[in-house]
Design a protein that fits this description.
Layout lengths: L14 H4 L8 H10 L15 H39 L5 H53 L3 H5 L4 H20 L1 H23 L1 H8 L2 H12 L2 H23 L2 H6 L3 H51 L17 H49 L14 E8 L10 E8 L4 E6 L5 H8 L7 E6 L2 E2 L5 H7 E4 L10 H6 L9 H10 L3 H4 L19 H15 L3 E5 L7 H14 L4 E6 L10 E6 L2 E7 H6 L4 H15 L29 E3 L53 H8 L1 H4 L12 H11 L2 H36 L5 H50 L2 H4 L6 H15 L1 H27 L1 H48 L1 H6 L3 H53 L5 H22 L2 H18 L12 E3 L6 E9 L5 E10 L6 E5 L5 H8 L7 E6 L2 E2 L5 H7 E4 L11 H5 L10 H10 L3 H6 L24 H14 L4 E5 L7 H16 L4 E6 L16 E6 L2 E2 L2
Parallel strand pairs: 3-8, 3-9, 6-7, 7-8, 15-20, 15-21, 18-19, 19-20
Antiparallel strand pairs: 1-2, 1-4, 4-5, 9-10, 11-12, 13-14, 13-16, 16-17, 21-22
Helix pairs in contact: 3-4, 3-7, 3-13, 3-33, 4-6, 4-13, 4-33, 6-10, 6-13, 6-29, 6-31, 7-8, 7-13, 8-12, 8-13, 9-12, 10-12, 10-29, 12-13, 12-26, 12-27, 17-19, 25-27, 26-27, 26-30, 26-34, 27-29, 27-30, 27-35, 29-31, 29-35, 30-31, 30-34, 31-33, 31-35, 33-34, 39-41
Length: about 1300
């Protein structure tokens, strides 16, 4: 079970070196890197800075930053001069005319500074964001290049799987892009403004400046200490988020098996617990960050009070300012200018603090990505190998030994020596897991051998150019990999570098036996294969993959169980045509089916990683007791058993029925309604640390049954009569197409207020109280600022007013100091409370999104808008981004509103005309703000969509990297990925322009507004309507309020990004749950296993009909039923419909006479188990966890797991592993979903069989269970099926292509009847 990862916070400086989760770095690589001790330096923010054009962007951004940095200090000087003129007018030095003339010129200066602020800050935002976009573009390109050149063994070592690694990489690029954009620009701007403001302050009144800044060194030390606590917590959070991403990727890419096995509760438990642990790490981060900013806020404000106190006692002005005209005295205007400059410096210091946390994340992300690139440079730096003039095709293995990186202690090949003759066909035969497929992988240089060497045409394989070899060698693997494109494009990828006509693709598909696929639909060439080829059957996928290899037509061809999903007749025809086509060219055929081997071909029999026998087939069969001869005898014996039915199954009452009429339904078991005893995985048990989450599946109101008539099969519900499909099912099924939500959810159009409403409804009572406390602290913080500004204005007045008494000065000094302390505490409380509330809000919706995703029908996952890569980014990157809505923007927005209200009230008291002026200014600003917000939202949504699209392309290429490498499709995906990245980059340009306009307008708002306010103030003072003291107080209050409003307006671009992220997550968390899977609540006490398909018709979404009025009755306690037919005839669809993975709009399916729509879907999948055609093992879980996966309320004891493994014939192999049943399966980079390089195809298939048997179902469904098994393994399974049906009374249904040897023959010795399906109907 997933456990929290402890981190010693004292090792903060070593954390980066010891944590490698973000790049998916293995433990060995991590320890090697730890010795080099890299540090997350500031330079990592520019790790992917691309070219000279980007340098010009950067130069322009820096120049604009410097220019904008001069605006605020210059504004301080101008404002100081204006106030100095007012003071001189008050002292009688200036006349009214002189005052107006001097102030008017200074007002024009302010307006000019506003224009300069608009231009410089707009350019600053555009250029820095464009630099960030350029670096993100380059980073995405480098990540693709880095991953596509990696060898397969590197992917096998990924600790959290390839999918989680890719999601983490996308998040790192976003963190790097975010840091280099506006945050870095604002940080540099704040540094420049602070330095220049302090210089101005020193020049005007150096004593006051030093008195104010005297405690800065101590504050800096405290800040550094608190900041050092953040990196280890950031890494700890990332580690747990990686575990959550791992679960999400594992689930989404294997959703059909997760649903079939009732694995939703397990996956939701792992995900929610990882999210909870990540949240705990963030809460501690929030504490240190809030403490850092709270202390800084309090100290900065307190410095002013202490500075004024110190300066008043040491100033040449003397007490009460009476000596202000003496030599060496400081002029009042200088004091005001110095104070204003220090205030601006302090404010920008405070603005810089939250940006530092963003920069820290960016530095760490850049460090991880840089390390990934440095490893890539080593790979790219390797010298290219030899490229021979001619490719002969003669391969020789010389004492070769090999072990997969995922199992280094277990050698797959042991000193193997063999020779593959050029221009001939060579067969490699052996049992499952003997090492046959490994030979093909080594020929392609997918892995490096640990012992011995391999030669090609006499040249060592290591000396040959890998690309050249892959140009001349094609491999068709057992697990067919198709891409999310059309059928035509998937075939044409065989010649990705040249143009392919439909006629060429058609000819290749015909040779691959795909005539049925060609003529099944008029638009077959434009038909989408779906992600991983999910929209095609197993046989159809193999035909398309084989057609791709035929079109490629290389000198060397390896077929690794390439036709295992086809029927025996088709297999024979295809193999014969391929052998004829490949005459006089090198062909290696890896198989366990020996029926197609010509007597004159060379055969190597592999046994336990060694060549047990080799020779021509005719010679091997002549040997009396050789390995191959025994294998042949076993094969022939299994074939003979297919021709008879054992005595165990001969019975007079044995009958399978299939007719057009209604089937006769009867059962004798009682029915238990509801599911009141279903376990809640979130309440206790295996997830003790996770908070409670709703049980799976959701509680559905139970149907009350009155006197059910079990003899007729009619169940009475609330109504007196019921048919096979109850009325409640019929009504829902009638509107079911309308319930599929393949359109944008309403959450896509949520505004800020609606998003905020979701916060309150997501919180528990505890966190609602925390939110209320945070809001109260926000009000206190907002009110403290005007109070402090008024106290500061009174302190300033004491320097220029000769009538100020000492006790009055001390009073206002006390008010200012007390307010600073209260404000610091309130600021800490506000930041911390809102941060942990935001984490709780995000955790709730992240868990709800994942839970709702798991409840969606399979049709939802087939929609292009719901691709796995995009969903993974929503659950990690966008969920993390969404937190800032509450933790940052809500608090600052509320502070701005409260400060504005308080300032308005204060101005009403002191001078109502200022309130009217501010209202007019805001009224004029509101339409512009709304325009910029709308434009920024639109651009952000388009940009994020483009980024998600590029991420989906990257994920498809890298998760199938084995196939991409073998077919040399890196160029095709490079072009496809580059186009997606370029679209994102071009979309980002419009985002930059609108964001620049919004930011420039925000930064110019303050000088323009102050120009109007100071003009009004000058007029009021000059006309004698108000005195200088109230005007000074109003100006101080309004200045701080306008600064807060400016800060809020400057957040518009970042707010738009946060809002779009929130909409994406909320779309998932608010998905509707009404589907065919939410129906039914019956949990029968016992199940016999009688299945009836009645008048069933079905077609997949946007597809041709698969089943047409299908009728079949399968009685319980009978020998296994074999369903045969060609690929795409609808066989596998029967199993999917029985498990309620899909719903048929017409007809009915009953289990023991109960319509399956009435049965609780979780219970149904407990009593009906399936062995899918693709094993679908789960990477990152142990062998034991894979077998016990989703066992549910019945549980799965170790003894049941061991017995199931023995029945499937895999127990001995598992025990032979170094860690036995605790061995972790890692899919690596092959994208097959079968457990990858850790297990062979046959071994993975036997684990899947054990997984189904361990559940102890009443009905066992096997879909091509022996396609990857050798005859001896089939015999073991054959005996197991006999025991399950005869001794345990299990209903067993087997799907296969074969009409004689469809299951590989072994299990057919105990098959009772065969049903042949064609065109969606039973034809025999």
């Amino acid at each position: 079970m997933y456990n929290e990862i402890p981190i010693d916070e004292e090792e903060a400086s070593d954390l980066l070196e010891n944590s490698y989760i973000d790049s998916g770095i293995s433990d060995d690589e991590g320890s090697a890197r730890a010795q080099s001790k890299p540090v997350a330096k500031f330079s990592f923010l520019f790790s992917f800075f691309p070219n000279s054009r980007a340098f010009y962007y950067l130069l322009t951004a820096c120049l604009a930053t410097v220019i904008s940095g001069f605006i605020v200090p210059a504004m301080s000087v101008v404002i100081g001069k204006i106030l100095d003129s007012l003071l001189k007018f008050g002292l009688g030095i200036y006349e009214k005319k002189v005052l107006r003339a001097e102030v008017q010129g200074l007002i024009w200066h302010l307006l000019g500074l506003g224009i300069g602020a608009f231009i410089s800050n707009g350019v600053l935002n555009v250029m820095w964001q464009r630099c960030a976009d350029l670096q993100a573009k380059r980073a995405r390109e480098c990540v693709f290049e880095s991953l596509v050149v990696r060898e397969l063994e590197w992917f096998d070592k990924r600790k959290h799987g390839v999918g989680a690694m890719l999601t983490q990489t996308q998040t790192q690029i976003w963190e790097l892009e975010t840091a280099l954009g506006q945050p870095l620009g604002l940080t540099l701007q704040s540094v420049i403004i602070s330095i220049l403001s302090l210089v101005v302050s020193l020049l005007h009144c150096w004593r006051l400046t030093l008195a104010i800044l005297v405690v800065l060194p101590i504050t800096g030390s405290i800040q550094y200490y608190l900041h050092s606590k953040l990196p280890p917590l950031l890494e700890k959070q990332k580690q747990h988020l990686a575990e959550a991403s791992k679960s999400a990727n594992r689930t989404i890419t294997n959703i059909a098996n997760v649903k079939s096995l009732n694995g939703q509760a397990f996956e939701l438990g792992v995900f929610s617990e990882a999210v909870e642990f990540a949240g705990n790490a963030f809460r501690l981060q929030a504490h240190y960050e809030a403490l850092k900013q709270g202390i800084f806020q309090s100290v900065i404000l307190a410095m002013f009070a202490s500075g004024f106190w110190y300066y008043r006692g040491t100033s040449p002005m003397g007490e009460n300012g009476k000596d202000q005209n003496s030599r060496g005295a400081t002029q009042p205007g200088d004091i005001i200018t110095s104070t204003w400059s220090c205030l601006m410096a302090a404010q920008h210091f405070l603005m810089m603090v939250p940006q530092l946390a963003i920069l820290e994340k960016g530095k760490i992300a850049g460090a991880h990505l840089s390390y990934l690139m440095s490893r890539t440079q080593r790979v790219l730096g390797r010298p290219r190998g030899l490229r021979l003039k001619e490719f002969g095709g003669g391969i020789k293995f010389h004492d070769v030994s090999f072990a997969y990186p995922s199992r280094p202690s277990q050698r797959v090949l042991k000193n193997i020596t063999l020779s593959i003759a050029p221009n001939k066909a060579t067969w490699i035969v052996g049992k499952s897991g003997s090492g046959k497929s490994t030979i093909g992988n080594l020929i392609l240089k997918s892995y490096n051998v640990q012992g011995g060497f391999i030669t090609l045409d006499g040249k060592p394989l290591e000396s040959l150019d890998t690309d050249w070899m892959r140009e001349n060698i094609t491999v068709v693997q057992q697990h067919s990999v198709l891409f999310n494109d059309t059928v035509f494009r998937n075939i044409a990828l065989g010649k990705a570098e040249s143009r392919v006509s439909i006629q060429q693709a058609k000819e290749a598909l015909l040779m691959a036996g795909g005539e049925g696929l060609i003529y099944s639909s008029d638009d077959i060439w434009s038909r989408m294969a779906g992600a991983r080829g999910l929209k095609l059957s197993g046989g159809q996928k193999q035909r398309v993959v084989l057609a791709r290899a035929i079109l490629r037509d290389t000198p060397f061809l390896i077929l690794d169980e390439a036709v295992s999903a086809m029927d025996s007749v088709t297999r024979s025809k295809i193999i014969e045509s391929i052998i004829e086509w490949r005459k006089d060219r090198t062909t290696v055929i890896i198989t366990h089916d020996i029926s197609q081997i010509p007597f004159g071909d060379m055969v190597y029999f592999i046994e336990d990683g060694v060549v047990a026998e080799s020779g021509l087939r005719l010679e091997l069969e002549d040997k009396g007791d050789g390995y191959f001869q025994k294998f042949v005898q076993t094969f022939k014996a299994s074939m003979r058993t297919c021709e008879s039915t054992p005595e165990d199954y001969r019975s007079d009452d044995y009958e399978y029925g299939f007719s057009r009429g209604k089937p006769i339904i009867g059962f004798s078991s009682g029915v238990e309604t509801g599911s009141s005893e279903r376990p809640n995985p979130g309440a206790h048990g295996q997830y003790p640390h996770r908070r409670k989450i709703p049980a799976w599946p959701p509680e559905i109101p139970n149907h009350q049954f009155d006197s059910p008539d079990y003899t007729t099969g009619i169940i009475s519900t609330n109504s007196k009569e019921s048919s096979l499909i109850p009325p409640q099912c019929e009504s829902i099924f009638a509107i079911w197409p309308l319930c599929l939500l393949f359109k944008k959810q309403k959450s896509d159009q949520l505004d800020l207020y609606q998003i905020f409403l979701t916060v309150w409804s997501s919180l528990t009572q505890k966190y609602r109280l925390v939110l209320i406390l945070g809001i109260i602290a926000t009000f206190v913080h907002a009110i403290a600022t005007p109070v402090f500004s008024f106290a500061l204005s009174r302190l300033l007045a004491s320097f220029v007013s000769p009538d100020t008494q000492a006790h009055e000065f001390k009073f206002w000094e006390f008010v200012a100091s007390s307010t600073a302390i209260v404000d610091g505490v309130a600021y800490y409380t506000m930041l911390y409370c809102l941060a942990i509330v935001s984490q709780e809000w995000v955790d709730y919706h992240r868990n709800a999104a994942y839970r709702h995703i798991l409840k969606q029908p399979l049709e939802w996952f087939e929609d292009p808008n719901n691709e796995g890569g995009g969903i993974s980014q929503d659950l990690e990157k966008h969920a993390e981004q969404m937190k800032e809505f509450v933790s940052r923007f809500t608090g600052n927005g509320l502070v701005g509103v409260v400060m504005l209200v308080v300032a308005a009230i204060w101005c009403l008291i002191l001078c109502w005309r200022f309130t009217l002026l501010v209202a007019v200014i805001l009224a004029a600003l509101s339409p512009l703000e709304h325009l910029f917000q709308r434009a920024a939202d639109s651009c952000e949504e388009k940009y994020n969509s483009a980024v998600v699209e590029s991420g989906n392309v990257l994920q498809e290429a890298i998760e199938n990297v084995s196939t991409v490498k073998m077919l040399q499709l890196d160029g095709y995906f490079r072009v496809k990925y580059q186009k997606a990245v370029n679209r994102a980059f071009k979309t980002g340009l419009k985002r930059c322009l609108w964001g620049g306009c919004a930011f420039g307008m925000a930064e110019s708002f303050m000088p323009w507004a102050l120009a109007l306010i100071l003009s009004l103030g000058t007029y009021l003072v000059a006309e004698g309507l108000y005195g200088l003291e109230p005007i000074l107080g109003v100006l101080t209050i309004l200045s701080l309020t306008l600064a807060q409003i400016t800060s809020i307006l400057g957040m518009i671009p970042q707010l738009s990004s946060c809002k779009d992220a929130a909409r994406r997550v909320l779309r998932l968390s608010q998905l509707q749950l009404v589907s065919h899977e939410s129906l039914g609540s019956l949990r029968p006490i016992s199940i016999q296993g009688t299945i009836v398909f009645n008048n069933l018709s079905f077609s997949y979404r946007n597809s041709i009909p698969v089943l047409d009025e299908f009728d079949l009755s399968i009685p319980s306690h009978k020998p296994p039923l074999l369903i045969t037919g060609s690929s795409g005839c609808g066989k596998s669809s029967l199993f999917k419909l029985l498990l309620r993975l899909y719903h048929s709009p017409s007809g009915a399916i009953t289990l023991d006479g109960i319509p399956i729509c009435d049965i609780d879907v979780k219970y149904l999948r407990e009593v009906v188990a399936i062995v899918p055609a693709s094993p679908g093992l789960f990477d990152g879980l142990s062998v034991f966890e894979n077998i016990a996966y989703g066992s549910g309320s019945r549980g799965c004891s170790p003894e049941a797991v061991y017995n199931a493994a023995k029945l499937a014939g895999i127990h001995d192999f598992i025990v032979s592993l170094s860690e036995g049943y605790h061995t972790i399966l890692n899919r690596g980079g092959d994208g097959s979903g079968s457990g990858g390089c850790s297990l062979s195809g046959g071994q993975a298939q036997r684990v899947a069989i054990a997984r189904a048997v361990a559940r102890k179902p009443k009905v066992l469904l096997l879909d091509e269970p022996c396609s990857a098994l050798d005859v001896e393994s089939e015999k073991v399974l054959d005996e197991g099926l006999r025991r399950l049906t005869v001794e345990e009374g299990m209903t067993v249904v087997v799907i296969t292509h074969g009409n004689v040897g469809g299951m590989g023959c072994g299990a057919e010795g105990h098959i009772g009847r065969r049903v042949v399906v064609s065109g969606g109907k039973i034809v025999e």
